Amino acid sequence: MKSNVPAVLFDLDGTLVDSVYQHVSAWHEALLDEGIELPIWRIHRRIGMSGGLFVRALAREVGRTIDDTTRARLVRAHAQAYLRRIDSVRPLPGARELLAELTRAHAPWAIATSGGRDVAMRSVALLELSGDVPVVTRDEVPYAKPNPDLFLRAAERLGVAVEESFVVGDSVWDLLAAQRARALGVGLLSGGYGRNELEFAGAYRVYSEPADMLRRLDELGIREA
Amino acid sequence: MKSNVPAVLFDLDGTLVDSVYQHVSAWHEALLDEGIELPIWRIHRRIGMSGGLFVRALAREVGRTIDDTTRARLVRAHAQAYLRRIDSVRPLPGARELLAELTRAHAPWAIATSGGRDVAMRSVALLELSGDVPVVTRDEVPYAKPNPDLFLRAAERLGVAVEESFVVGDSVWDLLAAQRARALGVGLLSGGYGRNELEFAGAYRVYSEPADMLRRLDELGIREA
After folding, report:
1. Is the pLDDT of residue B202 over 90?
2. Is residue B1 assigned to a domain?
3. Tens digits of per-residue pLDDT, A189-214?
4. CA distance B89 to B85
């Protein structure tokens, strides 16, 4: 692999599409329907984890156990509530242009998300990408973020070494997973985390949105030979 | 004023009631209806400013001007969209208990919010407080946060010196307004800002939620004589 065109492994929600707040609201609704009251910022800070892990973590925070049936029902209710909000989801500024620039420069890229395939593909569709887009979802790996599996599988899919790839994500879980995969993590503020939260989670660089990353792609040493 | 029972001036949204994300979503809807597309995290980071200032700031970010008629329409549309979401708004954990403890300790307290009176009183009602609650709203001052006016008026209403009061808020705008009022700002994470964002805005202390502040009230030197 040449260092001028490293592979770039992208998270989806909050990184390429502006869907984090709809996911937060959908989880809040699903949890309230089960009688589970949680401050919404705590839900926000868990977005990007696998759904199962997410429910377990929140259950621990409110100090109650949630059985497998309830957990499965919550994950389904969240997906339905998210799809009811998908009309308000937009691509993030510069997302399409950033991916197009990587393609033009022959830098391989893929999308790796903790979401399930059905919902993820609905969000990917909003990017209106042409051709075969490599998307790795929750269904294809044993453990989602903050475990490294999704990014490992994405690198494998592209036929590249994960240790020489960049991982781009908006959440602490992306950056922790990047470290576990021995990739370099690039943080985006577009998921609503503060800059320092991403830096403390090991971000190599932090940009505000895909458009900002595109403008400053030179900082990552990405350019055509 | 005795230093054991300083006055405490509270922000409302994200500080006492868990309503920031509903406000974010309501602004997003109102802006989309006007054809203004903005990444949602940028809306989130402006919540807590006065509505007019908020619209002006966001217009500058997308590089377009918004005339007074449109601005007034946006402010109205946001209020309506928020009220459609108010059924999902809950008091933040420990909010009622914290206010009760201050009352018990004879520490005067008030609420000061950048929101308009009608909407603010709907959110205050969720706290189910008894008696006459001093609430200062946008309508009563020339300039809302980050200007100091709301907190100055709240201190005046209580008959206390603002310089010896604590201001408690979840947003950078509360803490900047606290500094301008020469009060000490206490930050809460419950509005979804990162801890460092609040620290950099001058927070004297940062707690996660009202319940956390209540547990650690000794750190602020608040106790009955």
Report:
1. yes
2. no
3. 999 999 999 999 999 999 999 999 99
4. 7
Interface contact B21-A18, CB threshold 8 A: no
Mean pLDDT rounded to a whole number for chain B: 94
Q: Which tokens in the block code for residue A143? A: 């453990």
Paired strand residues for B135: B111
We report the CATH number of the domain holding residue A45 as 1.10.150.240
* Domain termination site, one of B87, B102, B122: B87
Strands A184-188 and A205-207, bridge-based pairing: parallel
Asked if A18 is an interface residue toward chain B (Cβ–Cβ < 8 A), one would say yes
Q: Among A56-65, A199-208, B96-105, whose mean pLDDT is lowest? A: A56-65
Inter-chain touch A197–B194, beta carbons under 8 Å: yes
Residues of B with Cβ-Cβ distance to A92 under 8 angstroms: 39
Q: Model's pTM, two decimal places?
A: 0.95
Q: Which domain holds residue B49?
A: 20-87
Name B17's bridge partners.
B13, B91
Nearest CA in chain B to A210: B39
Taking the C-alpha atoms of residue B111 and residue B188, their distance in angstroms, rounded to an integer, is 15
Question: A with B: how many residue pairs have Cβ under 8 Å apart?
Answer: 69
